[in-house]
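G., before I forget:
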Amino acid sequence: MILVTGGAGYIGSHMAKWLHQAGYPVVVFDNLSTGKRSLARYGEWMEGDLNNPDDLTHCFERFPIRAVIHFAARSLVGESVRMPLLYYQNNVAGTLNLLHAMADAGVKHIIFSSTAAVYGNPQQLPIPETHPKQPINPYGRSKWMMEQLIEDAVSAMGLHAVSLRYFNAAGADPAGELGECHDPETHLIPLVLKAALGKRSAITIFGQDYPTPDGTPVRDYIHVWDLVAAHELALQALLAGELQGYQVFNLGTGKGYSVKEVIHTAQRLLESEGVSIPVQTGARRVGDPPVLVAKADQVQQVLGWMPRLSDLETMIQHAWCWEKAQR
Ligand SMILES: NC(=O)c1ccc[n+]([C@@H]2O[C@H](COP(=O)([O-])OP(=O)(O)OC[C@H]3O[C@@H](n4cnc5c(N)ncnc54)[C@H](O)[C@@H]3O)[C@@H](O)[C@H]2O)c1
């Protein structure tokens, strides 16, 4: 059985569905702090908290777990600046508890949700896995600590682990069953679509004087369905013994889209439905680098992964179907 921590969240719920469809038995473990029970539609369900070791012990006793895919974390940058201790407690101490529980149960395989935030401000573009790790906020630092914890556990405990550093996950389940519902929402595509539906007054472009072709920040978006597909490839390789020790891969496409490109593409796609998107402009936000784009060749070469749905139009269309259905 595959344990999906954080499986009631945006990405974890898609992972549980993907694994279920691929024939893996799944158990979702989540404390519903930011997740939704209604998103955990696939596999066995266990409500539990990484910060409660008894919940983890119970989970590993109850289910015959072969591998863990670890999504559970708090992941709002601004919140992490206001409440750093919460982030270190939940993310770092929670991961420590998970590693203890895995050791007690003899579980040797883990895939970890890391983030491009471990790199901080890019010193080279596209960003390779070997780029210095200089996270600039407690969220990014917590993720870098979690990676280091896992790497140390690999050497000491004979684990085999893969950290996947996601750039910007976007889009929704192509079948329309699952999608993004963060509260508060901080991701660009759902914010644009909420403005289109009148759930927000407008989408704000923060800064138009960045050193990018149209002056707005450029990010590397990856469709959530492509993202979870890469996890299955990593899982297969781990379970087959083809990936050993500790491995790290960026998960992005290597192609960036600017804030204006995202908004203009959404405007063009929604025009046919008679929907317009109110846009306003604001000052630059602190801590937003001009460009964050992955060097994404490693995951393609080693795992044979290819993005299939990560073009901007498909990501927006799938996210739009989901947002409309939430009305
Ligand atoms: N969404 C992105 O673009 C993105 C980018 C980079 C990295 N990530 C990472 O991917 C993972 C999933 O992100 P997401 O967007 O799906 O977030 P999410 O908030 O939708 O999901 C996280 C899930 O973890 C659960 N959780 C949190 N703390 C827990 C705890 N102590 N015990 C049990 N469950 C707990 C939450 O209830 C939630 O269901 C996170 O680790 C995040 O840092 C996401």
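The two ends are 35 Å apart (CA to CA). The mean pLDDT is 97.

More on Monday.
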